[in-house]
Design goal:
- With 358 residues, the protein is mainly α.
- The protein has 16 helices and no strands.
- Helix 1 (6-24) packs antiparallel against helix 2 (32-54), helix 10 packs across helix 12 (275-286) and helix 13 crosses helix 16 (340-355).
Length: 358
């Protein structure tokens, strides 16, 4: 009977995930290559894991270590690419080359001091794990290139990736402890199980982030007369300004922001513009993502309702277009610097003071 190691099954699952994402991917979207390469490396790493522990082919171990050093930096670059309005900035050599240094260090150690390679991997994973969590500490709004209704999912994916990288460090420490106390008796099982789970979680996280970028940037429901993004000419500053002005009118006159299911595709459909053009216009004219842009209108409406009505905060949450109260509270705090209840209390105090007799 043919033996198929479990990591090979994980490789197949990751390949299916990647295939589904590639089918939706926009042709010519270079920034997506980070996530695509990342998932591909996860697949290769899973194959090497199966060869190492399924068929006991120890010759693949150096390549495993080298790929591990590449994964951490590539994971960081993938999510960092969601934080810049212009995707070409994320792909510039100036941004990328420092993240190749860990790979070069590991390669050198494998040639001359292999005994230090494992320690170097621990340091690399710890640094990048903390870096991703620090990036996440700035909040979901930093992911300006993520799609309007997928920011939170991309944000959670970034948090999970950072935690998984730090978790790998903890696992390595447990393995070293096992070798010290039990001569490594439990280490093979620990390595196999944790690596399989890590690859599944990391691959899924990367897939979620990639999916929440590509869906909005595809033509989708845009007008059929619009050209495909790959053949569109770059818009001028005047054209970007015109799009944002039209969008401002649409938001204020039609109150489109009250649609809780609103996303970039729907906005582009109303404007009869390709989604990419709308996203670029908002990013470059307002220096924010479409998600932040829409939520600013929602918070503005919420402030009006808090000032002028006695409706409960929960009701105002949905009336202003927010889907969840947690998102409403976070966005309200971002814009006003206070909670909705504190804002209403301040408004009441201000009214009393203004109406008090001299």
């Amino acid at each position: 009977m043919l033996f198929i190691p479990l990591p090979f099954v994980v490789t197949i699952l990751l390949a299916m995930l990647l295939w589904q994402l590639l089918r939706k991917r926009e042709t010519g979207n270079r920034t997506d290559q980070f996530f695509i390469v990342l998932i591909s490396i996860y697949m290769v790493q899973s194959v090497l894991l199966g060869l190492r522990w399924g068929y006991e082919i120890t010759a693949v171990l150096p390549l495993q270590i080298l790929l591990a050093s590449l994964i951490a930096g590539l994971a960081y670059l993938s999510f960092y690419s969601l934080t810049v309005p212009d995707s070409t900035l994320a792909l510039s050599l100036k941004k990328i080359w420092p993240h190749l240094l860990p790979v070069m260090v590991i390669f050198s150690l494998l040639l001359f001091r292999r005994d230090l390679a494992a320690l170097a991997i621990i340091v690399i994973f710890l640094v990048y794990g903390v870096s991703l969590l620090w990036l996440a500490f700035k909040g979901p709004d930093i992911l300006i290139a993520a799609r309007l209704d997928g920011v939170l999912r991309s944000y959670r994916a970034m948090q999970i990736t950072g935690l998984m990288l730090i978790g790998s460090v903890i696992v390595d420490l447990l393995i070293n402890l096992d070798f010290a106390r039990n001569s490594g008796h439990y280490s093979p099982a620990i390595i196999l199980v944790t690596n399989i789970l890590s690859l599944l979680f990391l691959g899924t996280a990367a897939g979620v982030a990639l999916n929440n970028r590509t869906n909005d940037e595809s033509g989708g429901e845009a007008e059929p007369h619009a050209q495909a993004p790959s053949t569109e000419a770059a818009l001028t500053t005047e054209q970007h300004v015109a799009i944002v002005a039209e969008l401002d009118d649409l938001m204020r006159e039609k109150q489109l922001y009250k649609d809780m299911e609103l996303n970039l595709k729907r906005i582009a459909h109303r404007l009869r513009k390709p989604p990419r053009h709308v996203s670029e216009a908002v990013n470059r004219c307002r220096a924010m993502s479409v998600s932040v842009y829409v939520n600013n209108f929602r918070v503005e409406e919420a402030c009006r309702l808090l000032r002028e009505t006695d409706e409960p905060v929960t009701q105002i949450t949905f009336a202003s277009g927010f889907l969840t109260k947690s998102n409403f509270n976070r966005e309200f705090l971002r814009v006003t610097g206070m909670s909705p209840k504190a804002f209403r209390s301040q408004m009441v105090t201000s009214d009393v003071r203004d109406n008090a007799p001299n």
